[in-house]
Amino acid sequence: MAGWGMAFLAALLLAAAPAVAPSPAEIVAAAPAEAWQAVPAEELLVLDFAGARRLVVQLAPAFAPTHVANVRTLVRDGWYARHAAIVRVQDNYVVQWGDPTGKVPLPQGVAHRPNDGYERPGLPPGFRALPFADSYGARVGHAGGWAVATDGTAHWLPHCPGMVGVGREMPPDTGSGAELYLVIGHGPRQLDRNIALVGRVLEGAEALAALPRGTGALGFYESADQHVKLVSARLGADMPQAERPRFEVMRTDGAAFAAWVDARANRRDPFFVRPAGGADICNLLPPIRPALSR
Q: Residue 260 is part of which domain span?
């Protein structure tokens, strides 16, 4: 991967003692401050479920602007906190929450069938393609701190573990954002461009992934007493600064990220006998960490 951060990787190799190739985790740990970008407060969504289960999500308005606008409206109206609960946990697939009755009216200002969440035209600014093949897009790569897939004329977020999507009924329904789900299993990439993705989890996915699986069809809970209430939904921009979670994502246009991608695709650290020489886009989601200082 010539030109993809080889100078950064070479420096790590020279500094290593004994002289072994650094692991991806070591590259992340050694990445300088300028290799990271802060998650903007206006993109933070903080969901607190019953049982002290907190999910912190980064919204993706550049990829699904109307769906994200709906989510923000539902949060600020208090609709989620009044009406939503986890109703479905399907093994190796999703955790889903929304109005268990499906009958509560949505607040004014929510678009019922947004048409801009499946894909976006062209390529995103700063897109850097990977040299690895993909089964669901002509090319995959990264832009602005996100993993991206493209067919050359449009781009979209891939359905990878930790992504947050919008539940919907049959087309032409595209979902409003009143139902959301978290991918907890192997990336169901067949959903790419068929369901809108509105963000990714920064923290807390394990708490939801550990919930009991639903025994009904598609993992739905069969009894209302199994539902896990969503007790609070807030946007980072609306929270006091002292209470606001703070995270950083590795920049996808820098040398540290390039070296990390190379190390993920070509494991040279001592455990590995045979490097793969490639990586799936869901194995190349940009590293995330809590902000180191306020």
A: 6-38+255-290
Q: How confident is the model at residue 269 (pLDDT cuts 50, 70, 90)?
A: confident
Q: Are 141 and 269 found together in one domain?
A: no
pLDDT digits (tens, 9 = 90+) for 240-252: 999 999 999 999 9
Are 241 and 162 in the same domain? yes
**Do residue 18 and residue 113 come from a single domain?**
no
What average pLDDT does this structure show over 68-81?
A: 98
- 119/136 same-domain check: yes
Distant-in-sequence contacts of 14-19, Cβ < 8 A, 24+ apart: none
Helix, strand, or coil here: 176? coil
State the CB neighbour count (10 A cutoff) for residue 267. 18
What is the dihedral angle through the alpha carbons of 72, 64, 183, 123, rounded to the nearest 10 degrees?
-150
pTM as predicted: 0.92
What is the rounded distance in angstroms from the CA atom of residue 178 to the CA atom of residue 48? Answer: 16
Tens of pLDDT, residues 7-33: 665 556 555 444 678 999 999 999 999
Residues 104, 176: one domain? yes
- Cβ–Cβ contacts within 10 Å for residue 233, how many? 22
- Burial (CB count <10 Å: 0-12, 13-18, 19+), residue 97: buried
In Å, how far from its chain's centre is CA 180? 13
Average pLDDT over residues 259-278: 93
Task: Give yes or no: residues 271 and 208 share one domain.
Answer: no
Domain count, the chain: 2
